[in-house]
Design brief:
By secondary structure, this protein is mainly alpha-helical. The protein has three domains: 45 residues, no CATH class; 171 residues, no CATH class; 117 residues, no CATH class. The protein is 57% helix and 8% strand. The strands form three sheets. Strands 1-2-8 form a three-stranded mixed β-sheet. Strands 6-3-7 form a three-stranded antiparallel β-sheet. A two-stranded antiparallel sheet has the order 4-5. Strand 4 and strand 5 form a beta hairpin. The relative contact order is 0.11.
Amino acid sequence: MRCSRRALDRVFTRFVPVTLGVLLSGCSSVGYYGQLAEGQWQLLRARQPLERVIADPATSPALRQRLLFAEKARAFASAQLRLPDNGSYRVYADLGRPYVVWNVFATPELSLQPVTHCFPIAGCVAYRGYYRQGAARGAAALMRQEGLDVYVGGVEAYSTLGWFDDPILSTMTGWGEERLATVIFHELAHQRFYVQDDTEFNESFASFVEQEGTRQWRAARGMEAVEEHGAGQRDAFIRLVLASRERLQAIYAGPLDAAGKRAAKQTEFERLRREYREVRDRDWAGDRRFDAWMYGPMNNAKLLPFGLYDQWVPAFSQLFKEVGGDWLRFYERVEALGRLPIEQRKLALAALASSRGKPAPTTARGGGPDPR
């Protein structure tokens, strides 16, 4: 007997928290998986159809405008970008908090290799998510006691990979309209295709769909194909961080002893801040939007998200070019890459990136895996 997704949603909201409690009773993971089940259950319960929220007289004009815009972007995603045509992002949930989850990233002190965590559906990923900020901070503190570099980052949206109808969240509606559309494209791309145990592949694929989808979305609305305000600064900032990652990787793989590597690590972070100041003051007219991130505590784990989201974007861009911009052929090629053994997949992606005229990025095996 096959159940509809909505029927599965009902099963989840009513029975999964209880079932997980039984299955994990006595297991050391009960606390973590329990909070995952409870958090997802609360999110599903908060969902309302967009049309109901839009029609509600109590809905603020600003929120109504955002949701009307999101409806158009959602329709464009399926009709033009050939992304899944399902109930996701056709419902809304007010969470009453700034982030839906907080992700905890960790690395060894002298390595960019992420500490990974494996889950039954998502496979192995380079972070652990928590629905309460306090729980994320507590987990981070325990990891620091183990000598790990740790970073906690808030996340405003995520995908359940099509298992449930993902909502537009209140955490997303404070953005500009274009960013709201791009995140819908990004998260639907995860539903379109996902490979277990390869975070860099999945996030780079979704980031490319987001970027190319946004370009086409602007063109469809008769807008010039110009950079989003601040996109140039963001790209330059990311390049600075990725270059610093490359230098750190060389330090950790080099001949220095542990004390020497620790000293070189701190010197590299100071170099990153110095180069950032030079670019900011010379090219950005002193725009300080990234100051808080740059001058906060710095460690390896803080650099991890950048490689996760950006590493293979040039490769997917080249692939899209090779299929003449045909979305269905592009997805077929992406799926073929996803079926390769991981090392062959990375070699194929590196070849695509190189053929685009850009150096191939380093792989996670040699180093480590953006802030969103």
